[in-house]
Amino acid sequence: MTTSLAGRDIISLSRLGNGQIKKIFDLARDFRRMFDRCHALPPLMAEKVLALIFDQPSTRTYGSTGIAMVRLGGLLAPPFIAASVASSLAKGETFEDMGSSLSEMTVDVIAMRHKKVGSAQRLANGASIPVINCGDGTGKHPTQALLDVFTASRSIGILDSCTVTLLGDLKNGRTVHENGPLFGRFGVQRFFLVSPPLLAMPKRIVTQMERHGTTIIQTQDLEAALKESDLVYATRIQREYFESEEEYDAVRGSYVVDAALLQRTNPNVKVMHPLPRVDELATDIDKLPNALYWEQMRNGVFVRAAILALITGAI
Amino acid sequence: MTTSLAGRDIISLSRLGNGQIKKIFDLARDFRRMFDRCHALPPLMAEKVLALIFDQPSTRTYGSTGIAMVRLGGLLAPPFIAASVASSLAKGETFEDMGSSLSEMTVDVIAMRHKKVGSAQRLANGASIPVINCGDGTGKHPTQALLDVFTASRSIGILDSCTVTLLGDLKNGRTVHENGPLFGRFGVQRFFLVSPPLLAMPKRIVTQMERHGTTIIQTQDLEAALKESDLVYATRIQREYFESEEEYDAVRGSYVVDAALLQRTNPNVKVMHPLPRVDELATDIDKLPNALYWEQMRNGVFVRAAILALITGAI
Amino acid sequence: MTTSLAGRDIISLSRLGNGQIKKIFDLARDFRRMFDRCHALPPLMAEKVLALIFDQPSTRTYGSTGIAMVRLGGLLAPPFIAASVASSLAKGETFEDMGSSLSEMTVDVIAMRHKKVGSAQRLANGASIPVINCGDGTGKHPTQALLDVFTASRSIGILDSCTVTLLGDLKNGRTVHENGPLFGRFGVQRFFLVSPPLLAMPKRIVTQMERHGTTIIQTQDLEAALKESDLVYATRIQREYFESEEEYDAVRGSYVVDAALLQRTNPNVKVMHPLPRVDELATDIDKLPNALYWEQMRNGVFVRAAILALITGAI
User: Fold this and answer.
1) Whether residues C186 and C227 fall in one domain
2) Which of A27, A34, A87, C94 would you call most buried, defined as having the most Cβ atoms within 10 angstroms of its Cβ?
3) Residue C75 has what pLDDT?
4) Domain that holds residue C283
5) pLDDT by residue (tens digit) across A90-118?
6) Given an 8 Å threshold on Cβ–Cβ distance, is C301 in contact with B90?
């Protein structure tokens, strides 16, 4: 199997081989090292145009994909923001036609977030250029998973003998549906899945995670899980999935990660979070060495830069 | 009459001479040839700034104007999107003041789409820099007409002895109001105007089209028209102009251009459409040599690049 | 006290020394001179990224900050427009977290307008990079005040013995709350504050303005004030603060600055306005030498360019 990524869409991680992912990580690592040293990236994307199509609120994915592009010397088409009201999608244009249209308009690569599951694949079906899925509703968000695993392995080193706790809304969070299996592929030995019963990880994702011989332990006991974990990956619990305010408040209170909890259970555990946070992740961790979420955002720029450079064949 | 375009607004085609239009087409042709060969345009717009003001949904016009600018090495002001709510137009600023303001802010050229008829002219009245009308409601959309005629003549060659069918909503479609007369100026000999009676071409446009000795035939018989046409230009039929769902469905069904229709009537007829389409243009034509609508989008970048370079005096 | 601005936030003018402000003005003057001569600025911001976060309608501040950046060779992150619905602020992210996030995402400087008073300070608290407050609701708008005083002193010369009339809604207008005290610091000798009683300048701002020995005269007699003024700074009177349409119309009519008024009272008085205007400033002044509001907009680009270059340490 070739590891070349030129011309490839990044729609779902299940279609990327480990060799391809390592290629992305290697380039991201080089980009980061270069940037940390001289606050610049090489102008690999000169004369290339990225179109951003974003339908849903986004700070990190939208911002860092665009920043990666301009830091590589690339060009941005004027952004399609609130795309379902402000682009021709509002007039009933199909995703396929939008993909074809942008391809004809000399765009070199598209990054799209849209609330419809499958939208990025449909866009890619119409496009003759590579498409990056930046989140298709409750579907996939592959670049987030890539930057998560990149960050974990960069900070912790070999993930082979690690234990990871995934925490929060494991039912609806597209992030953990992608990075859970990816952590599994990269050797994580054991997972604690900690969530309210209502928000448990779907069976099909658990199955994917078990594929590599990984042990999966589903529990509601966060403290016990943390004691045996190298890493905890926290996500937001969303109010709208609860029937009453009381139920929500009870659950929410029991899944707050703060400095006291770390002190009590495992002062060395690393803490990740895709952000934005509401109150499931306390700010008193922000300056501790446990916090990896700042690194996640920083690495997001370099992982996305690597993806852009590789799929457009710029490198 | 001078053919220089430096400093000229592009508000309506009636104010452009044939020499000026040919100048735009010649440069667009050069740009396209250069880009097809080396995937780059010359940096003619270095140090020049384009402001995009877009009030209404747009993929192609907004995207390709911006892409043309950055491919020419030009700079984009941050875009004014949903301008009637997110710029000072929302506080009651006049178009004239917005034109003056952007001129003072060192902008070199403005491209605006706004739903108010006459808005681009008013902006241009206030501005000391050239303004491109990218669609003013039911008014004009000159760059679309230019890229349409450019595409037809590039694909078909001399238009002098051609027959063109304009199809769909000929009453409300600003596209056919501009490109109809322009096809006439460029020598088209005969037009079939095919539309439901409710959506017939306005008399004043027919008069403009007849000015060059062109024959105009108004009919509802699409098949007969196609049999004698070199080119059919299809447009969307908009539901909101019909009194009942039944009426709409009846009309809509009889104006669908698909591969079977072409096969039955005229396998050589070229098919154009400004896109987006709903279902009046079937996707089974997409890969046939008849389809010119992909070419329209591609040429849109180069026609707009030519306009930008010429009206700013960059060339 | 050091006059260096590298790394400084521009949140409120009260925290900038006169030496620092003069440094901004000197550089803005150089930039303007250079641009007037060769239509270009030096590429001081190469490899630097600006993030624009704009929640409220804006043409001038948003546009000219972005234009300043690209004219200096800097890069724009894709803009965060309508940020309270289209960025993670919509998911409950705090301003502090947004500041931290953009800092990690390798952004070099942020310019934000948001309707919440104090929002820019909170963003800056989270950020490790400089933040420019482009208006925080009824709070501060320091770059507007800087360009106002820069424009006045560039056109009038030494402000020491000047009399300035501030006109309109002095209660709610954040512009006059910032530029009033700044005019005072730069030596203006006497102010007429002309407003309907309902919209009088708040006591705390009057106190700030008096600090430098300035004489403050509150009046409703615009004609008398103009007769003794070198400069009148007009602002919009907003309908929503009046109880009845009649009250509003009465007030509004008595505060219109037009050519006849200038002729009648003081043909030499300079006229400033932050724009947008509704009808308190007549267009018959637009071409007169009295009008400084075009200069304000033009200088806005260069004052903001100077701020960007200084706070990022590019110069």
Assistant:
1) yes
2) A87
3) 98
4) 142-296
5) 777 899 999 999 999 999 999 999 999 99
6) no
